Amino acid sequence: MPPSTPSNGQPAIRLDHISRHYTMGEAVIRAVDDVSLDLPTGEFLALLGSSGSGKSTLLNLIAGLDRPTSGAVIAHGQDLSKVSSLELARYRRQTVGMVFQSFNLLPRMTLEENVELPLRLAEVERGDRAARVQEALGRVGLGKRITHRPSELSGGEQQRAAIARALVNRPKILLADEPTGNLDSATGESILTLLKEIQKNPGMTIVMVTHERPLAERYADRLAVMGDGKLLSNGAAR
Amino acid sequence: MKPRDLSDLALRNLREAILRNSLTTLGIAVGVASLVAMLSLGVGLQQLASKRLSQSGLFDSVFVTPRMNLRGMGRDAMPAPTDKPPRLLDENARQEIARLPNVVEVYPQIRFFTEVRYDGKPFATMVAGMPASSKASGSFDGMQGSFFSGDGAYETILQSEFAKELNPQTSALIGKELVLRYAERQSLPQDSANSSATPPSSNSASLPGGFSVVPKEMRLRIVGVVDTEPASGFGGYGNGRLLIPLQVAMTLRAAQINDLRDIVRGTASAQTFASLTVRAKGPAYVEALEASIKNMGFGAFSLLDASKSLATFFRVLDMLLGIFSSLALFVATLGIVNTLVMAILERRREIGVLKALGASDRDVKQLFFFEAGVMGLFGGVFGAFLGWLIGRALTFGTNVYLHRRDLPSVEITSVPWWLVLGAIAFAVFVSLVAGLYPASRAARLNPVEALRYE
User: Fold this and answer.
1) Residue A143 half-sphere exposure, CB side, CA atoms within 13 Å?
2) How far apart are the C-alpha atoms of B93 and B95, rounded to whole Å?
3) B289-310, pLDDT tens digit by residue?
4) Distance between CA B352 and CA B446 in Å, rounded?
5) A117, B357 in Cβ contact below 8 A?
6) If we measure between CA atoms, which residue out of A84, A82, A66 comes closest to residue A74?
7) Between B8, B16, B356, which is nearest A63 by CB?
């Protein structure tokens, strides 16, 4: 079991009574409704739930892509509900890496350019970038495909490239939104094996949204199940 | 994001939609081209007018008269620019003025009405002395024959209207001789003046001598016929249909209109000038020169004010041309807005990805802003070139037209560097303004919604 909390005792992620409500006409949709959760550093959490249960919304709140209607999202001591949009962007650049179901690689760019993009945004020196890109792609087994474009790769390879892009800025939290959703089961398993491998990085916390419970049980340390925006259960996977 | 990365990404984005972005850029180029072409026409016409006027000597000349000359004329009094007493405008004064800084030459206006005999027939006309510098004034460009062979040559150039009176076939006049009859002024000793038949006035004994007028003749060889009127215009060389070298005109000592005035003033013993024309090195020196001359005790004025009015007129013309031609650029900016708004729609998901990867609102805004700026820059550069080309075509077309009418070529357009750089800067500025709305709209995109966009 990886280390559970950093030395100062703070969890990697603390969700404190967070809600995210949308209004559609006169109706209020409670996508996330009063969820509280502590995730220790180094843990691999799988967020389970049916479609529309609010798990992706919760992930977006942790990713700093969205702000809660109420409550606090505290990631590594930083309350995301209170920071400016500029600080939120810095948080997305430096603290979290994101992987999506549909990979979201930019089709016009080569793998190298796709993976270099977060380094550009983080203003990493040009001289350091090539090595960091090579290292990240090498780690996901695509070191020899750097000049290829996403369309020249299989789904699994694209998701690996997306993981390399998410990791290139050396984040502390990796967020994956249905990373196996567009992959066959064998490829999906290989991606989860890779994530499990990444979790071994000291201090790396992973939150994965999925609706494939068997996979989640096999790879995640902890399962949190959501339904109708609420956290229904939260406990160890095995 | 660092500027270099920003430019990399922006240029990449522009290349991806090369056709659309090229068309937008072309729109800007057409707008800039119309602006540059119109303004180059304004600038060219201004330069043409200034050149012609500067050649005419009107704007780099100071017209000097004895100061008292300008009094009266319905005015109470001249504003006294100096305490210096009025002075005679004589040869000494001429030399003194010639020594002032930035003076090219000082010459008197010599013109007199006289009779010319050609082929045994008399013709009345006005004679004007032309300084050697008038050769470069442009007035003699395209003349028949040639300019005077020297300052003291007994030669004449005829204004074509007058020449036609002598012989309708003006070209046949060149090389022929004519006889100039004029009244030479000869000074009389003081006692002879006092012995005139006029009843003496109370103070007539104090008056200096007068002069007698003796008819003289002189043979002049016709060397040229000119269509323009080189001797016309204020401060120029005096209206004249028969032009002779100024040196020759001065040696004639022909009686002039101001001679009678000199007698009344008692200054007839020394030759004075009705006026002198002082040519400065350029219009910029005219104002200071005018002040210096006034300070010496003479009346002096120039057409500087008229020159300033001309400059104002061309500024207003340029402004109007600029406003009308800017309309095309305004339409082009709508093209930029349209292109960038379309780009936001197309790249919605990409903007979401960028934001998810840590791009700030400012990064996204700058990216679109930069793309607008690059389109403006390329459009500006290409447009300035296109405008220059249109200007050349206008000049070419005009000259073809002028040649068909046997008129000399002119440069009606001019594209100075300030116009090129100004047009490019204006294109970039306008493009950036056009990019403001799309850029801020892109920056405001909600990343969650953008990522969901298919």
Assistant:
1) 8
2) 5
3) 888 888 888 888 787 766 677 7
4) 7
5) yes
6) A82
7) B356
What is the per-residue pLDDT for A68?
A: 94
Task: Enumerate the residues of chain B whose CB falls inside 8 A of the CB of residue A63.
Answer: 356
Angle at B233 between CA B227 and CA B237, to 5 degrees: 85
**Residues of B in Cβ contact (< 8 Å) with A120:** 1-2, 5, 8-9
Q: What crossing angle do the helices spanning A126-139 and A155-167 adopt, rounded to 10°?
A: 140
| Record: contact A120-B360, CB cut-off 8 A | no
In this complex, do A86 and B451 lie within 8 Å of one another by their Cβ atoms? no
Show residues of chain B in contact with A94, CB under 8 Å.
Answer: 358
Distance CA B316, CA B312 (A): 6
**Interface contact B361-A104, CB threshold 8 A:** no
Is pLDDT of A85 > 70? Answer: yes
Query: Between β-strands B61-66 and B298-302, what pairing exists: parallel, antiparallel or unpaired?
Result: antiparallel
Confidence of residue A201 (pLDDT cuts 50, 70, 90): confident
DSSP of A200-235 = TSTT-EEEEE-S-HHHHHHH-SEEEEEETTEEEEEE
How far is residue B148's CA from residue B112's CA, in Å, rounded to a whole number? 19
Query: Quick check: B408 and A20 in contact, CB under 8 A?
Result: no
User: Domain coordinates of chain A in residue numbers?
Assistant: 108-170
Q: Cα dist. B174→A40, B146, B168 in Å? A: 112, 9, 12
* Nearest one of B152, B175, B153, B171 to B163, comparing CA atoms: B171
DSSP 3-state of B98: helix
Nearest by CB: A122 against B350, B352, B358: B358
**CB nearest to A65's CB, from B1, B350, B448:** B448
**pLDDT score recorded for residue B69:** 44
Residues of chain B found within 8 Å of residue A86, distances taken between Cβ atoms: 360-362
Residue B13, min C-alpha distance to chain A (Å): 9
List the domain boundaries for chain B.
3-54+310-452, 60-107+277-302, 110-272
Average pLDDT on B417-439 reads: 91
Task: Name which of A85, A106, A126 is nearest B353 (Cβ-Cβ).
Answer: A106
Per the listing, tokens 């003025």 go with: B97
* Interface ipTM: 0.92
